[in-house]
Amino acid sequence: MLDSKIETFLAVVKYESYTATAQELHMTQPAVTQHIHKLEDYYGCKLVDSSKRSIKLTDAGNLLYEYLSLQQANEKHFMSMLHKTKQPLCVGASLSIADFYLSRLMTKKFSTDNERTRISVENTTSLIHKLHTGELDCALVEGLFNNQMFNTRILIEVPFIAVVSSTHPLAGKTISLNQLHEYPLVLREPESGTREILENWLASKNDCCQSFKEIIELGSFTLIKEIVLNSNAVTFLYEGVVQNELAHGTLKRVNIKDFNLHHPFHFVFRKGDPQTNHLLDFYELLNENFKALD
């Protein structure tokens, strides 16, 4: 059972208002304020900055929120297990993994397991947030995230490549990064794992997406591939995302000097989750299937 002060703190973060928190928890506003002050006394630091009209967490408050939201999520799962309430396995997957890997990985589970499974497809940032709040039990992500609050396992490492249409002037050639700047860049929306990987690699070369002739942002891999197929644009994707197009020769790889990037797909779940053993069994099933694809 979570301490009432903790529940108050989590509600303040959720509603961003002492008044709304008081109404939701059927408390007085001074009682909400007192709960926050007692937590600040206990932890010895300022957690909430309410000096302005809007409520904001301090750095310490953000760290405490990440920790306590995980405890709240684990508490809910423990209560379900305690009362033997059957809940679906809630799995999150980033778009790259869901569209081009997950169906083949999950076939064995669906054909041999009667457990209900619910799959959500979102970008890495959204998936990590839903793990924090308990909306997901585990997630398959390729983006960058803070793993201090989570257990992680690597499934596989996959090649991350640049591709263009088969009629593109650079198709199949080995070039410098600067030569790509002359062409439009098609990429995913901000906070997507695929985009973060590219942005971080470019930053390591003292470069950025804005160096390209034009930036086109799309949230669909189908649209991204269609644009690249019918234009002189370039995009960066996991090799598996364009496996069919490469095999049929409609898209061609561009070899960039000093660019040999492989990135891991991670299986992520909350530390301290009471169903850890079950999640590890699920990971082993996925890992076995991933090895078969590798």
UniProtKB/TrEMBL annotation:
One Pfam family linked to the record: HTH_1
The keyword Lipoprotein is annotated on this UniProt entry: no
Domain HTH lysR-type, first and last residues per copy: 1-58
Molecular function GO terms recorded: DNA-binding transcription factor activity; transcription cis-regulatory region binding
InterPro entries reported in the protein's UniProt record: LysR_HTH_N, LysR_subst-bd, WH-like_DNA-bd_sf, WH_DNA-bd_sf
Keywords for this protein: DNA-binding, Transcription, Transcription regulation
SUPFAM superfamilies: Periplasmic binding protein-like II, Winged helix' DNA-binding domain
Record family assignment: Belongs to the LysR transcriptional regulatory family.
Protein's recorded name: DNA-binding transcriptional regulator, LysR family
Source organism (scientific name): Anaerorhabdus furcosa
